[in-house]
Amino acid sequence: MTGSDGPHRESGSDFRPAGPASERAREEEERAVEQALALVGGSDRTGGSGGRPNRSQDHRGDQDPRGHQDSRGHHDSRGHQGPRDEDPHPGPSSDGAPYNDRDDAPRDGRTTAATASTTTNAASTTPAPSSEQPLLPDRSSPKDPAKPPSPPPPWDRARAIAARAGRGGPTPTIRLPLDRALGHVLAEALGALTDLPSFDTSAMDGWAVAGPGPWAFETGAGLLAGRAPAAALPDGTAVRIATGARVPPDTTAVIRSEHAHVDEARGLLHARRSVVTGQDIRARGQECRSGEQLVPAGTVVTPAVLGLAAAAGYDALPVVPRPRVDILVLGDELLNAGLPHDGLIRDALGPMLGPWLRALGAEVSGPRRLGDDAGALRDALASSDADLIVTTGGTAAGPVDHVHPVLDALGAELLVDGVAVRPGHPMVLARLSPDGPYVVGLPGNPLAAVSGLLTLAEPLLAGIAGRPAQDPYRALVHAEVHGHPHDTRLVPVVHRPGRAGGRDHVAPLRYNGPAMLRGVAGADGLAVVPPGGVRSGTEVEILDLPWAPATPWTEGCFT
Protein backbone atom coordinates (compact mmCIF):
# COMPACT_ATOMS: atom_id res chain seq x y z
CA MET A 1 0.00 0.00 0.00
CA THR A 2 1.06 3.57 -0.45
CA GLY A 3 -0.37 5.08 2.74
CA SER A 4 -0.72 8.81 2.31
CA ASP A 5 1.47 9.06 -0.75
CA GLY A 6 -1.28 8.30 -3.22
CA PRO A 7 -4.26 6.12 -4.07
CA HIS A 8 -3.96 2.43 -3.24
CA ARG A 9 -5.23 -0.41 -5.44
CA GLU A 10 -5.67 -3.92 -4.11
CA SER A 11 -3.31 -6.54 -5.51
CA GLY A 12 -4.88 -8.42 -8.39
CA SER A 13 -7.58 -5.81 -9.00
CA ASP A 14 -6.30 -4.41 -12.30
CA PHE A 15 -9.56 -2.81 -13.25
CA ARG A 16 -10.03 -1.61 -16.83
CA PRO A 17 -13.24 0.06 -18.03
CA ALA A 18 -15.08 -1.92 -20.72
CA GLY A 19 -15.28 -0.51 -24.21
CA PRO A 20 -13.43 2.39 -25.78
CA ALA A 21 -13.10 5.52 -23.70
CA SER A 22 -10.98 8.57 -23.61
CA GLU A 23 -7.95 8.72 -21.32
CA ARG A 24 -9.65 11.38 -19.27
CA ALA A 25 -12.83 9.36 -18.90
CA ARG A 26 -10.84 6.31 -17.83
CA GLU A 27 -8.99 8.31 -15.21
CA GLU A 28 -12.27 9.68 -13.83
CA GLU A 29 -13.79 6.23 -13.66
CA GLU A 30 -10.72 4.79 -11.95
CA ARG A 31 -10.81 7.62 -9.46
CA ALA A 32 -14.44 6.80 -8.66
CA VAL A 33 -13.51 3.16 -8.17
CA GLU A 34 -10.68 4.06 -5.82
CA GLN A 35 -12.97 6.32 -3.82
CA ALA A 36 -15.46 3.50 -3.47
CA LEU A 37 -12.65 1.20 -2.35
CA ALA A 38 -11.82 3.73 0.34
CA LEU A 39 -15.29 3.16 1.78
CA VAL A 40 -15.22 -0.65 1.71
CA GLY A 41 -11.63 -1.39 2.62
CA GLY A 42 -9.47 -0.26 -0.23
CA SER A 43 -7.34 2.80 -0.73
CA ASP A 44 -7.58 4.60 2.62
CA ARG A 45 -6.89 1.68 4.96
CA THR A 46 -3.50 1.61 6.51
CA GLY A 47 -3.77 -1.21 9.01
CA GLY A 48 -2.52 -4.00 6.76
CA SER A 49 -5.92 -5.71 6.45
CA GLY A 50 -8.33 -4.42 3.87
CA GLY A 51 -11.96 -3.82 4.61
CA ARG A 52 -11.86 -2.72 8.25
CA PRO A 53 -10.94 0.79 9.34
CA ASN A 54 -7.49 1.10 10.84
CA ARG A 55 -7.96 1.85 14.54
CA SER A 56 -4.31 2.12 15.47
CA GLN A 57 -2.77 4.75 13.21
CA ASP A 58 -3.76 7.52 10.86
CA HIS A 59 -1.70 7.59 7.68
CA ARG A 60 -1.76 11.34 7.67
CA GLY A 61 -0.49 11.93 11.16
CA ASP A 62 0.78 9.08 13.28
CA GLN A 63 2.69 7.09 10.65
CA ASP A 64 6.28 7.92 9.85
CA PRO A 65 6.52 8.82 6.15
CA ARG A 66 9.81 6.87 6.04
CA GLY A 67 8.01 3.71 7.07
CA HIS A 68 9.45 3.40 10.59
CA GLN A 69 6.18 2.58 12.32
CA ASP A 70 4.99 -0.63 13.88
CA SER A 71 1.73 -1.74 12.25
CA ARG A 72 0.14 -1.84 15.69
CA GLY A 73 1.26 1.63 16.71
CA HIS A 74 3.97 0.54 19.16
CA HIS A 75 6.89 2.82 19.83
CA ASP A 76 9.85 2.36 17.50
CA SER A 77 12.88 2.45 19.81
CA ARG A 78 15.00 3.94 17.04
CA GLY A 79 13.19 7.21 17.63
CA HIS A 80 11.70 7.63 14.14
CA GLN A 81 8.79 9.97 14.31
CA GLY A 82 6.35 11.37 11.77
CA PRO A 83 6.26 15.05 10.82
CA ARG A 84 3.11 15.80 12.80
CA ASP A 85 4.71 16.02 16.24
CA GLU A 86 8.44 16.23 15.57
CA ASP A 87 10.16 19.48 16.48
CA PRO A 88 13.50 19.39 14.62
CA HIS A 89 13.81 23.20 14.57
CA PRO A 90 12.53 24.56 17.89
CA GLY A 91 11.54 28.17 17.56
CA PRO A 92 9.52 30.63 19.62
CA SER A 93 6.78 28.01 20.03
CA SER A 94 7.81 25.03 22.10
CA ASP A 95 5.07 23.03 20.47
CA GLY A 96 6.95 22.33 17.26
CA ALA A 97 6.16 22.50 13.56
CA PRO A 98 2.57 22.81 12.33
CA TYR A 99 0.68 19.86 10.98
CA ASN A 100 1.44 18.92 7.38
CA ASP A 101 -1.06 16.08 7.12
CA ARG A 102 -2.78 15.18 3.89
CA ASP A 103 -6.33 16.13 4.76
CA ASP A 104 -7.84 15.96 1.31
CA ALA A 105 -8.28 12.17 1.44
CA PRO A 106 -11.13 10.32 3.17
CA ARG A 107 -10.14 9.14 6.63
CA ASP A 108 -11.66 6.47 8.84
CA GLY A 109 -15.04 6.58 7.17
CA ARG A 110 -15.30 10.37 6.93
CA THR A 111 -15.99 11.32 3.34
CA THR A 112 -15.58 14.51 1.40
CA ALA A 113 -18.47 15.82 -0.62
CA ALA A 114 -16.83 14.59 -3.81
CA THR A 115 -16.43 11.14 -2.38
CA ALA A 116 -20.03 10.94 -1.29
CA SER A 117 -21.34 12.05 -4.66
CA THR A 118 -19.52 9.30 -6.57
CA THR A 119 -20.15 6.43 -4.16
CA THR A 120 -23.30 5.01 -5.76
CA ASN A 121 -21.99 4.74 -9.33
CA ALA A 122 -18.49 3.70 -8.35
CA ALA A 123 -19.62 0.89 -6.09
CA SER A 124 -21.25 -0.97 -8.97
CA THR A 125 -17.91 -1.23 -10.79
CA THR A 126 -15.76 -2.04 -7.77
CA PRO A 127 -13.61 -5.14 -8.42
CA ALA A 128 -13.29 -7.82 -5.78
CA PRO A 129 -10.27 -7.45 -3.50
CA SER A 130 -7.43 -9.89 -3.83
CA SER A 131 -7.07 -13.04 -1.77
CA GLU A 132 -4.02 -11.51 -0.09
CA GLN A 133 -6.20 -8.93 1.64
CA PRO A 134 -9.67 -10.42 2.23
CA LEU A 135 -12.51 -7.98 2.59
CA LEU A 136 -13.97 -7.71 6.11
CA PRO A 137 -17.39 -6.05 6.15
CA ASP A 138 -18.17 -3.31 8.58
CA ARG A 139 -19.46 -4.95 11.76
CA SER A 140 -22.13 -2.31 12.17
CA SER A 141 -23.76 -3.35 8.90
CA PRO A 142 -22.43 -6.76 7.78
CA LYS A 143 -24.91 -7.03 4.94
CA ASP A 144 -23.90 -3.68 3.47
CA PRO A 145 -20.10 -3.63 3.11
CA ALA A 146 -20.24 -0.42 1.09
CA LYS A 147 -21.69 1.52 4.01
CA PRO A 148 -19.05 3.79 5.54
CA PRO A 149 -18.38 3.30 9.27
CA SER A 150 -19.60 5.98 11.62
CA PRO A 151 -17.08 8.73 12.35
CA PRO A 152 -15.51 8.56 15.80
CA PRO A 153 -17.09 10.75 18.47
CA PRO A 154 -15.52 14.05 19.50
CA TRP A 155 -13.14 13.91 22.44
CA ASP A 156 -15.48 15.51 24.98
CA ARG A 157 -18.36 13.24 23.98
CA ALA A 158 -16.20 10.11 24.28
CA ARG A 159 -15.12 11.20 27.75
CA ALA A 160 -18.75 11.78 28.74
CA ILE A 161 -19.70 8.30 27.48
CA ALA A 162 -16.98 6.76 29.63
CA ALA A 163 -18.06 8.71 32.72
CA ARG A 164 -21.71 7.76 32.20
CA ALA A 165 -20.76 4.10 31.80
CA GLY A 166 -18.87 4.17 35.09
CA ARG A 167 -21.88 5.61 36.89
CA GLY A 168 -24.33 3.21 35.27
CA GLY A 169 -24.44 0.50 37.94
CA PRO A 170 -25.23 0.46 41.65
CA THR A 171 -22.46 1.64 43.93
CA PRO A 172 -21.44 -1.04 46.44
CA THR A 173 -20.48 -0.12 49.99
CA ILE A 174 -18.00 -1.74 52.35
CA ARG A 175 -16.78 -0.71 55.81
CA LEU A 176 -13.04 -0.46 56.32
CA PRO A 177 -11.11 0.34 59.50
CA LEU A 178 -9.42 3.71 59.45
CA ASP A 179 -5.97 2.26 58.78
CA ARG A 180 -7.23 0.68 55.51
CA ALA A 181 -9.55 3.41 54.22
CA LEU A 182 -6.94 5.79 52.84
CA GLY A 183 -7.50 6.59 49.15
CA HIS A 184 -10.99 5.12 49.00
CA VAL A 185 -14.09 7.17 48.25
CA LEU A 186 -16.75 7.72 50.93
CA ALA A 187 -19.94 5.89 50.01
CA GLU A 188 -21.95 7.93 52.50
CA ALA A 189 -21.72 11.39 53.99
CA LEU A 190 -19.67 11.52 57.17
CA GLY A 191 -21.65 12.93 60.10
CA ALA A 192 -20.20 13.82 63.49
CA LEU A 193 -20.86 11.24 66.20
CA THR A 194 -20.16 13.79 68.94
CA ASP A 195 -19.70 17.50 69.51
CA LEU A 196 -16.22 18.73 68.58
CA PRO A 197 -14.73 19.51 70.98
CA SER A 198 -16.89 17.44 73.29
CA PHE A 199 -16.20 19.76 76.24
CA ASP A 200 -14.71 23.22 76.85
CA THR A 201 -10.92 23.01 76.57
CA SER A 202 -8.00 25.36 76.93
CA ALA A 203 -6.46 26.51 73.66
CA MET A 204 -3.20 27.57 75.32
CA ASP A 205 -0.85 26.83 78.20
CA GLY A 206 -1.53 29.44 80.88
CA TRP A 207 -3.99 30.25 83.62
CA ALA A 208 -7.73 29.65 83.91
CA VAL A 209 -9.23 32.62 85.75
CA ALA A 210 -12.65 33.44 87.14
CA GLY A 211 -14.00 36.97 87.53
CA PRO A 212 -11.89 40.16 87.51
CA GLY A 213 -8.24 40.20 88.60
CA PRO A 214 -5.90 40.14 90.28
CA TRP A 215 -6.47 36.45 91.05
CA ALA A 216 -5.30 34.36 93.92
CA PHE A 217 -3.68 31.06 92.98
CA GLU A 218 -2.26 27.96 94.53
CA THR A 219 1.07 26.45 93.52
CA GLY A 220 1.15 23.06 91.86
CA ALA A 221 0.96 21.37 88.45
CA GLY A 222 -2.53 22.61 87.81
CA LEU A 223 -4.94 21.09 85.27
CA LEU A 224 -3.55 18.70 82.63
CA ALA A 225 -5.08 17.25 79.47
CA GLY A 226 -6.84 13.93 79.88
CA ARG A 227 -7.60 14.36 83.58
CA ALA A 228 -10.99 14.16 85.24
CA PRO A 229 -13.07 17.35 85.35
CA ALA A 230 -12.11 19.84 88.03
CA ALA A 231 -14.39 21.54 90.49
CA ALA A 232 -15.89 24.91 89.66
CA LEU A 233 -13.46 27.82 89.84
CA PRO A 234 -14.39 30.38 92.53
CA ASP A 235 -14.58 34.03 91.55
CA GLY A 236 -11.26 35.88 91.94
CA THR A 237 -9.11 32.73 91.68
CA ALA A 238 -6.82 31.21 89.05
CA VAL A 239 -5.35 27.79 88.34
CA ARG A 240 -2.59 26.67 85.99
CA ILE A 241 -3.93 24.89 82.90
CA ALA A 242 -2.32 23.04 79.97
CA THR A 243 -3.38 23.10 76.33
CA GLY A 244 -6.22 20.62 75.75
CA ALA A 245 -7.14 20.38 79.44
CA ARG A 246 -10.76 20.56 80.42
CA VAL A 247 -11.69 24.09 81.56
CA PRO A 248 -13.27 24.21 85.03
CA PRO A 249 -16.86 25.38 85.28
CA ASP A 250 -17.34 29.13 85.80
CA THR A 251 -14.01 29.97 84.09
CA THR A 252 -14.04 33.46 82.58
CA ALA A 253 -11.00 33.17 80.32
CA VAL A 254 -7.58 31.62 79.85
CA ILE A 255 -4.58 33.92 80.14
CA ARG A 256 -1.52 32.77 78.22
CA SER A 257 1.59 32.25 80.32
CA GLU A 258 3.49 34.98 78.48
CA HIS A 259 0.67 37.46 79.14
CA ALA A 260 0.59 36.86 82.90
CA HIS A 261 2.71 38.19 85.81
CA VAL A 262 3.02 35.98 88.86
CA ASP A 263 3.61 37.69 92.22
CA GLU A 264 4.93 34.74 94.17
CA ALA A 265 5.37 36.73 97.36
CA ARG A 266 1.75 37.82 97.56
CA GLY A 267 0.29 34.78 95.79
CA LEU A 268 -1.44 36.89 93.15
CA LEU A 269 -1.68 36.64 89.36
CA HIS A 270 -1.80 39.84 87.26
CA ALA A 271 -2.72 40.13 83.56
CA ARG A 272 -0.31 42.09 81.38
CA ARG A 273 -3.11 42.71 78.85
CA SER A 274 -6.84 43.24 79.05
CA VAL A 275 -8.83 40.04 79.51
CA VAL A 276 -11.79 39.26 77.24
CA THR A 277 -14.42 36.80 78.37
CA GLY A 278 -13.95 33.45 76.63
CA GLN A 279 -10.48 34.18 75.29
CA ASP A 280 -8.32 31.13 74.44
CA ILE A 281 -11.14 28.73 75.34
CA ARG A 282 -12.32 26.22 72.74
CA ALA A 283 -16.01 26.00 73.53
CA ARG A 284 -17.87 22.70 73.23
CA GLY A 285 -19.24 22.21 69.69
CA GLN A 286 -17.10 25.02 68.29
CA GLU A 287 -16.08 22.86 65.28
CA CYS A 288 -19.28 20.86 64.90
CA ARG A 289 -22.33 19.54 66.69
CA SER A 290 -23.25 15.87 66.87
CA GLY A 291 -25.02 14.79 63.66
CA GLU A 292 -23.64 17.63 61.58
CA GLN A 293 -22.28 16.60 58.16
CA LEU A 294 -18.50 16.85 58.08
CA VAL A 295 -17.72 15.73 54.51
CA PRO A 296 -20.07 14.63 51.70
CA ALA A 297 -20.30 11.28 49.97
CA GLY A 298 -17.86 11.00 47.09
CA THR A 299 -14.99 12.55 49.05
CA VAL A 300 -11.63 10.85 48.66
CA VAL A 301 -10.35 9.67 52.04
CA THR A 302 -7.16 11.65 52.63
CA PRO A 303 -4.99 11.63 55.75
CA ALA A 304 -6.85 14.74 56.92
CA VAL A 305 -10.23 13.02 56.45
CA LEU A 306 -8.95 10.07 58.51
CA GLY A 307 -7.95 12.44 61.31
CA LEU A 308 -11.30 14.20 61.24
CA ALA A 309 -13.17 10.88 61.26
CA ALA A 310 -11.19 9.68 64.26
CA ALA A 311 -11.80 12.93 66.13
CA ALA A 312 -15.54 12.63 65.37
CA GLY A 313 -15.66 9.14 66.87
CA TYR A 314 -15.29 6.77 63.90
CA ASP A 315 -13.41 3.46 64.00
CA ALA A 316 -14.38 2.42 60.43
CA LEU A 317 -15.69 4.23 57.37
CA PRO A 318 -18.31 3.36 54.71
CA VAL A 319 -16.43 3.46 51.42
CA VAL A 320 -16.73 2.30 47.81
CA PRO A 321 -14.44 -0.61 46.96
CA ARG A 322 -11.52 0.33 44.76
CA PRO A 323 -12.16 -0.60 41.11
CA ARG A 324 -10.16 -3.72 40.22
CA VAL A 325 -8.12 -3.47 37.03
CA ASP A 326 -6.30 -6.12 34.99
CA ILE A 327 -3.59 -5.05 32.51
CA LEU A 328 -2.96 -7.12 29.37
CA VAL A 329 0.15 -6.17 27.37
CA LEU A 330 0.01 -7.35 23.75
CA GLY A 331 2.84 -7.67 21.24
CA ASP A 332 5.51 -10.22 20.35
CA GLU A 333 7.99 -7.42 19.71
CA LEU A 334 8.18 -6.22 23.33
CA LEU A 335 11.12 -6.77 25.69
CA ASN A 336 10.83 -6.78 29.47
CA ALA A 337 14.48 -5.88 30.09
CA GLY A 338 17.66 -4.81 28.37
CA LEU A 339 18.29 -2.71 25.29
CA PRO A 340 16.22 -2.90 22.11
CA HIS A 341 17.73 -5.20 19.49
CA ASP A 342 16.89 -7.14 16.33
CA GLY A 343 13.56 -5.39 15.82
CA LEU A 344 12.51 -5.85 19.44
CA ILE A 345 11.64 -2.83 21.59
CA ARG A 346 11.19 -2.22 25.31
CA ASP A 347 7.72 -2.37 26.78
CA ALA A 348 7.12 1.14 28.13
CA LEU A 349 3.45 0.68 29.00
CA GLY A 350 3.68 -2.31 31.34
CA PRO A 351 5.79 -0.44 33.93
CA MET A 352 3.79 2.78 33.49
CA LEU A 353 0.15 1.69 33.56
CA GLY A 354 0.04 0.02 36.98
CA PRO A 355 1.28 3.02 38.99
CA TRP A 356 -0.79 5.39 36.85
CA LEU A 357 -4.00 3.43 37.45
CA ARG A 358 -3.24 3.13 41.17
CA ALA A 359 -2.86 6.92 41.26
CA LEU A 360 -6.40 7.04 39.85
CA GLY A 361 -7.62 5.03 42.83
CA ALA A 362 -7.71 1.53 41.32
CA GLU A 363 -6.56 -1.80 42.71
CA VAL A 364 -4.31 -3.11 39.95
CA SER A 365 -2.97 -6.59 39.30
CA GLY A 366 0.46 -7.08 37.78
CA PRO A 367 0.61 -6.73 33.99
CA ARG A 368 0.17 -9.95 32.00
CA ARG A 369 2.18 -10.13 28.77
CA LEU A 370 0.25 -12.14 26.18
CA GLY A 371 2.19 -11.42 23.01
CA ASP A 372 0.20 -11.67 19.77
CA ASP A 373 -1.93 -14.64 20.79
CA ALA A 374 -5.64 -14.21 20.05
CA GLY A 375 -6.56 -17.31 22.07
CA ALA A 376 -4.67 -16.10 25.12
CA LEU A 377 -6.33 -12.69 24.82
CA ARG A 378 -9.79 -14.25 24.59
CA ASP A 379 -9.15 -16.50 27.59
CA ALA A 380 -7.79 -13.58 29.64
CA LEU A 381 -10.81 -11.40 28.86
CA ALA A 382 -13.34 -14.16 29.47
CA SER A 383 -11.85 -15.26 32.79
CA SER A 384 -11.22 -11.84 34.34
CA ASP A 385 -13.21 -10.86 37.43
CA ALA A 386 -11.95 -7.28 37.34
CA ASP A 387 -14.11 -4.21 36.92
CA LEU A 388 -11.90 -2.97 34.08
CA ILE A 389 -9.46 -4.68 31.73
CA VAL A 390 -6.89 -2.44 30.04
CA THR A 391 -5.16 -3.74 26.92
CA THR A 392 -2.19 -2.16 25.13
CA GLY A 393 -1.72 -2.23 21.37
CA GLY A 394 -3.54 -4.48 18.91
CA THR A 395 -6.40 -2.07 18.22
CA ALA A 396 -5.63 -1.75 14.51
CA ALA A 397 -6.74 -4.03 11.66
CA GLY A 398 -3.39 -5.66 10.93
CA PRO A 399 -2.71 -9.40 10.76
CA VAL A 400 -1.83 -9.67 14.47
CA ASP A 401 -4.17 -6.99 15.84
CA HIS A 402 -6.63 -9.15 17.73
CA VAL A 403 -8.53 -6.77 20.03
CA HIS A 404 -11.52 -6.12 17.76
CA PRO A 405 -11.94 -9.71 16.48
CA VAL A 406 -11.77 -11.08 20.03
CA LEU A 407 -14.26 -8.51 21.31
CA ASP A 408 -16.55 -9.47 18.42
CA ALA A 409 -16.21 -13.16 19.24
CA LEU A 410 -17.08 -12.53 22.90
CA GLY A 411 -20.17 -10.51 21.96
CA ALA A 412 -18.86 -7.34 23.58
CA GLU A 413 -20.75 -4.08 23.26
CA LEU A 414 -18.61 -1.34 21.73
CA LEU A 415 -19.35 1.91 23.55
CA VAL A 416 -16.54 3.94 21.93
CA ASP A 417 -14.70 2.74 18.82
CA GLY A 418 -12.15 5.42 18.05
CA VAL A 419 -12.09 9.03 19.22
CA ALA A 420 -11.43 12.24 17.30
CA VAL A 421 -8.31 13.05 19.32
CA ARG A 422 -4.57 13.10 18.64
CA PRO A 423 -2.61 11.24 19.71
CA GLY A 424 -4.56 8.10 20.51
CA HIS A 425 -7.53 8.17 18.15
CA PRO A 426 -7.81 4.33 17.85
CA MET A 427 -8.73 3.84 21.54
CA VAL A 428 -11.65 1.53 22.35
CA LEU A 429 -14.18 1.25 25.19
CA ALA A 430 -16.32 -1.89 25.36
CA ARG A 431 -18.28 -3.97 27.85
CA LEU A 432 -18.07 -7.73 27.68
CA SER A 433 -21.59 -8.28 29.07
CA PRO A 434 -24.28 -6.28 30.87
CA ASP A 435 -22.81 -7.29 34.24
CA GLY A 436 -19.30 -8.03 33.03
CA PRO A 437 -16.12 -6.00 33.03
CA TYR A 438 -15.35 -3.02 30.86
CA VAL A 439 -12.46 -3.11 28.41
CA VAL A 440 -10.37 -0.07 27.50
CA GLY A 441 -8.17 -0.79 24.50
CA LEU A 442 -5.22 1.60 24.43
CA PRO A 443 -3.07 2.26 21.36
CA GLY A 444 0.45 0.86 21.56
CA ASN A 445 2.25 4.20 21.24
CA PRO A 446 3.08 5.46 24.75
CA LEU A 447 1.74 9.02 24.58
CA ALA A 448 -1.27 7.77 22.62
CA ALA A 449 -1.88 5.34 25.49
CA VAL A 450 -1.69 8.24 27.97
CA SER A 451 -4.31 10.01 25.87
CA GLY A 452 -6.51 6.92 26.13
CA LEU A 453 -6.04 6.77 29.88
CA LEU A 454 -7.15 10.37 30.35
CA THR A 455 -9.96 10.16 27.78
CA LEU A 456 -11.58 6.84 28.69
CA ALA A 457 -10.01 5.09 31.69
CA GLU A 458 -9.91 8.04 34.11
CA PRO A 459 -13.59 9.10 33.82
CA LEU A 460 -14.72 5.45 33.76
CA LEU A 461 -12.82 4.62 36.96
CA ALA A 462 -14.05 7.81 38.63
CA GLY A 463 -17.62 6.73 37.93
CA ILE A 464 -17.09 3.18 39.20
CA ALA A 465 -15.40 4.49 42.35
CA GLY A 466 -18.18 6.99 43.05
CA ARG A 467 -16.04 10.09 42.64
CA PRO A 468 -18.04 13.18 41.66
CA ALA A 469 -17.24 14.77 38.32
CA GLN A 470 -14.58 17.44 38.58
CA ASP A 471 -15.24 20.86 37.13
CA PRO A 472 -12.79 21.54 34.30
CA TYR A 473 -10.50 24.49 34.66
CA ARG A 474 -8.73 26.60 32.07
CA ALA A 475 -5.38 28.35 31.92
CA LEU A 476 -3.59 30.70 29.57
CA VAL A 477 -1.18 29.03 27.19
CA HIS A 478 2.04 30.94 26.74
CA ALA A 479 2.85 29.92 23.17
CA GLU A 480 1.13 29.13 19.92
CA VAL A 481 0.02 25.49 19.89
CA HIS A 482 -0.53 23.90 16.51
CA GLY A 483 -3.65 21.81 16.24
CA HIS A 484 -4.95 18.98 14.13
CA PRO A 485 -7.23 20.16 11.31
CA HIS A 486 -10.21 18.12 12.50
CA ASP A 487 -9.51 16.51 15.89
CA THR A 488 -8.83 17.62 19.45
CA ARG A 489 -5.18 17.43 20.41
CA LEU A 490 -3.76 16.67 23.89
CA VAL A 491 -0.41 18.37 24.47
CA PRO A 492 1.83 18.01 27.56
CA VAL A 493 2.23 21.31 29.42
CA VAL A 494 3.86 22.63 32.56
CA HIS A 495 2.41 25.36 34.80
CA ARG A 496 4.51 28.47 35.29
CA PRO A 497 4.04 31.54 37.49
CA GLY A 498 3.51 34.94 35.93
CA ARG A 499 6.39 37.38 35.94
CA ALA A 500 6.35 41.13 36.50
CA GLY A 501 2.66 41.16 37.28
CA GLY A 502 1.73 38.74 34.48
CA ARG A 503 -0.82 35.98 34.86
CA ASP A 504 0.06 32.40 35.67
CA HIS A 505 0.06 30.25 32.56
CA VAL A 506 1.01 26.92 31.02
CA ALA A 507 3.78 26.29 28.52
CA PRO A 508 3.64 23.46 25.97
CA LEU A 509 6.48 20.97 26.05
CA ARG A 510 8.46 19.49 23.21
CA TYR A 511 8.69 15.76 22.51
CA ASN A 512 4.94 15.38 22.27
CA GLY A 513 4.74 12.83 19.45
CA PRO A 514 2.50 9.77 19.92
CA ALA A 515 5.50 7.47 20.49
CA MET A 516 7.24 9.79 22.98
CA LEU A 517 7.14 9.98 26.77
CA ARG A 518 9.87 12.56 27.25
CA GLY A 519 7.45 15.48 27.16
CA VAL A 520 4.80 14.05 29.49
CA ALA A 521 7.53 12.94 31.93
CA GLY A 522 8.25 16.63 32.56
CA ALA A 523 4.59 17.74 32.50
CA ASP A 524 2.06 18.34 35.22
CA GLY A 525 -0.93 18.47 32.87
CA LEU A 526 -2.20 18.10 29.32
CA ALA A 527 -3.74 20.98 27.39
CA VAL A 528 -6.91 20.23 25.44
CA VAL A 529 -6.23 21.96 22.12
CA PRO A 530 -9.26 22.34 19.82
CA PRO A 531 -9.05 21.61 16.08
CA GLY A 532 -6.98 24.21 14.30
CA GLY A 533 -4.82 25.04 17.32
CA VAL A 534 -4.66 28.12 19.53
CA ARG A 535 -2.63 31.31 19.62
CA SER A 536 -0.46 32.43 22.49
CA GLY A 537 -2.56 34.02 25.23
CA THR A 538 -5.59 31.79 24.63
CA GLU A 539 -7.23 29.95 27.52
CA VAL A 540 -7.37 26.18 27.14
CA GLU A 541 -8.81 23.39 29.27
CA ILE A 542 -6.21 21.57 31.38
CA LEU A 543 -6.22 17.92 32.43
CA ASP A 544 -4.16 17.45 35.58
CA LEU A 545 -1.94 14.42 35.81
CA PRO A 546 -2.93 12.30 38.84
CA TRP A 547 0.30 12.89 40.76
CA ALA A 548 0.43 16.67 40.12
CA PRO A 549 -1.36 19.31 42.24
CA ALA A 550 -3.99 21.44 40.57
CA THR A 551 -1.73 24.50 40.45
CA PRO A 552 1.86 23.35 40.94
CA TRP A 553 3.53 26.33 39.28
CA THR A 554 6.81 24.52 38.83
CA GLU A 555 9.36 24.92 36.12
CA GLY A 556 9.73 22.01 33.72
CA CYS A 557 13.04 20.59 32.56
CA PHE A 558 11.88 19.48 29.11
CA THR A 559 10.92 22.77 27.52
UniProtKB/TrEMBL annotation:
<feature type="compositionally biased region" description="Basic and acidic residues">
    <location>
        <begin position="23"/>
        <end position="33"/>
    </location>
</feature>
<comment type="function">
    <text>Catalyzes the insertion of molybdate into adenylated molybdopterin with the concomitant release of AMP.</text>
</comment>
<protein>
    <recommendedName>
        <fullName>Molybdopterin molybdenumtransferase</fullName>
        <ecNumber>2.10.1.1</ecNumber>
    </recommendedName>
</protein>
<dbReference type="Pfam" id="PF03454">
    <property type="entry name" value="MoeA_C"/>
</dbReference>
<dbReference type="InterPro" id="IPR005110">
    <property type="entry name" value="MoeA_linker/N"/>
</dbReference>
<dbReference type="Pfam" id="PF03453">
    <property type="entry name" value="MoeA_N"/>
</dbReference>
<keyword id="KW-0479">Metal-binding</keyword>
<dbReference type="InterPro" id="IPR036135">
    <property type="entry name" value="MoeA_linker/N_sf"/>
</dbReference>
<keyword id="KW-0808">Transferase</keyword>
<feature type="compositionally biased region" description="Basic and acidic residues">
    <location>
        <begin position="1"/>
        <end position="13"/>
    </location>
</feature>
<comment type="similarity">
    <text>Belongs to the MoeA family.</text>
</comment>
<keyword id="KW-0460">Magnesium</keyword>
<dbReference type="InterPro" id="IPR038987">
    <property type="entry name" value="MoeA-like"/>
</dbReference>
<dbReference type="InterPro" id="IPR001453">
    <property type="entry name" value="MoaB/Mog_dom"/>
</dbReference>
<feature type="compositionally biased region" description="Basic and acidic residues">
    <location>
        <begin position="55"/>
        <end position="89"/>
    </location>
</feature>
<keyword id="KW-0500">Molybdenum</keyword>
<dbReference type="InterPro" id="IPR036425">
    <property type="entry name" value="MoaB/Mog-like_dom_sf"/>
</dbReference>
<feature type="region of interest" description="Disordered">
    <location>
        <begin position="1"/>
        <end position="157"/>
    </location>
</feature>
<feature type="compositionally biased region" description="Basic and acidic residues">
    <location>
        <begin position="100"/>
        <end position="110"/>
    </location>
</feature>
<keyword id="KW-0501">Molybdenum cofactor biosynthesis</keyword>
<feature type="compositionally biased region" description="Low complexity">
    <location>
        <begin position="34"/>
        <end position="43"/>
    </location>
</feature>
<feature type="compositionally biased region" description="Low complexity">
    <location>
        <begin position="111"/>
        <end position="131"/>
    </location>
</feature>
<dbReference type="InterPro" id="IPR005111">
    <property type="entry name" value="MoeA_C_domain_IV"/>
</dbReference>
<comment type="pathway">
    <text>Cofactor biosynthesis; molybdopterin biosynthesis.</text>
</comment>
<feature type="domain" description="MoaB/Mog">
    <location>
        <begin position="326"/>
        <end position="463"/>
    </location>
</feature>
<dbReference type="InterPro" id="IPR036688">
    <property type="entry name" value="MoeA_C_domain_IV_sf"/>
</dbReference>
<dbReference type="Pfam" id="PF00994">
    <property type="entry name" value="MoCF_biosynth"/>
</dbReference>
